[in-house]
Amino acid sequence: MTHLRINGVEEELPVATIAELLAERGIDRNARFLAVAVNGNVVRRAEWPAAALSSGDNVEIVRPFQGG
Amino acid sequence: MSRKRVVDDPLMIAGTKLRSRLILGTSGYPNQQVLLDSLEASGAELVTASIRRISLEGYAESLIDLLADRCRILPNTSGCVTARDAILTAELAREALETDWVKLELIGDRETLYPDVEQLVHTAEELVRKGFVVLPYCNDDPVTCQKLADVGCAAVMPLGSLIGSGMGIANPAAIELICARSPVPVVLDAGIGTASDAAFAMELGCDAVMANTAIAKSHDPRRMASAMRAGVEGGRLARLAGRIPKRSFAEPSSPQLGLVGS
Q1: For residue B26, which phi and psi values (nearest 5 degrees)?
Q2: Annotated catalytic, B103?
Q3: Where are the domains of chain B?
Q4: How far apart are CA B118 and CA B116, in angstroms?
Q5: Which residues of chain A have a CB within 8 Å of the CB of B25?
Q6: Which residues neighbour B233 within 8 Å (Cβ) at sequence distance 6 or greater?
Q7: How many CB pairs under 8 A join A and B?
Q8: Which CATH number fits domain B2-52+63-241: 3.30.390.10, 1.20.120.450, 3.20.20.70, 3.30.930.10?
Q9: Which residues of B touch A62 (CB under 8 A)?
Q10: CB atoms B68 and A34 under 8 Å
């Protein structure tokens, strides 16, 4: 299990990479306009399958919404 | 003729040609269809979007998917109060939307939403260094605008008045001064209440106007979007035409010779 902070919420999840995390949450990793940062650094989409997550990581998963 | 004149008068930001001088915010519309109709009525080619955490209950499409096929998206860093958050938000936006453009907002006070000018200039410089095309929301202050241009911003976006206030242009003399001196395009951002405010901004010399709440929260957003478009175009034409000087006394417009009975 990996202890992560995901979009501000602490969670224990059986995932080891960003791609696994997205799959576990039911998020299609090929969906348009998704972006992910780990510990304040953007991780490019192509790197999601290989990008390892470890306990204590702070993950942000975002997309554009309407805004002014 | 007038329509052609407007069409032939594109706005250039960072080498990109935009036919419309109205930038549309996409927040707060009654529903998605009204937003899409208003976008069409406005003629805007550039629309803003915010970057937010997705719901962890599963990915849902947002209206941005539809907007992105119709126009250029300008992501903003709205809500950010630190340089670190603003830079990360800009970097996430670049990854999500595949654009280097960012409307930089760095808020110094959550109640008035006034920019934090000190952080804004440093953060703009940092983003420019990272290759971003930076359009900062800033104070209506010529010195701040000059500093932002000096660090490489592609445009400046001084506020007319407080965000969402509809108070129009609180300090027209300052906006006019900024426009007269700015080496980069000036986009009047925030405070627009109705179409005459947009026209006034353009008459003062602004290169473009950004509007959101004035359209989205009007009784008829589609109609207000049309009005805003006409206001921007009318104001731009008036600016190019050149207003007459103001006088304290009357000057008759009819000839003074040949008056009946004289």
Answers
A1: -115, 10
A2: yes
A3: 2-52+63-241
A4: 6
A5: 67-68
A6: B2, B6, B21
A7: 110
A8: 3.20.20.70
A9: 51-54, 92, 96
A10: no
Given a cut of 60, whether residue B60 has pLDDT beyond it is no
Q: What is the pTM of this model?
A: 0.90
Tell whether A29 lies on the interface with B, counting CB pairs under 8 A: no
Contact at CB, B64 and A65, closer than 8 angstroms: yes
Given B4, B17, B103, B147, the catalytic residue: B103
**How confident is residue B3, by pLDDT bands cut at 50, 70 and 90?**
low
* Interchain CB contact of B22 with A (< 8 Å): no
Residues of B in contact with A7 (CB under 8 A): 53-54, 56
- Enumerate the domain spans of chain A: 2-62
The percentage of residues in chain B with a pLDDT greater than 70, rounded to a whole number, is: 95
Question: Domain A2-62 belongs to what topology?
Answer: Ubiquitin-like (UB roll) (3.10.20)
- B220 falls in which pLDDT band (50, 70, 90)? very high
- Say which residues have a Cβ less than 8 Å from residue B149's Cβ, sequence separation at least 6: B156, B182, B183, B184
A61 vs B contacts (CB less than 8 Å): 53-54, 56
Nearest residue to B186 (alpha-carbon basis) of B225, B151, B159, B213:
B159
Q: Which of B51, B74, B228 to mutate to test the interface with A (most CBs of A within 10 A)?
A: B51
Rounded to 5°, the CA angle B16-B19-B21 comes to 95
**B149-202 residue pLDDT tens:** 999 999 999 999 999 999 999 999 999 999 999 999 999 999 999 999 999 999
DSSP-derived 3-state class of residue B73: strand
CB contact under 8 A, B59 and A31: yes
Average pLDDT over residues B72-91: 96
At B219, phi and psi to the nearest 5? -65, -30
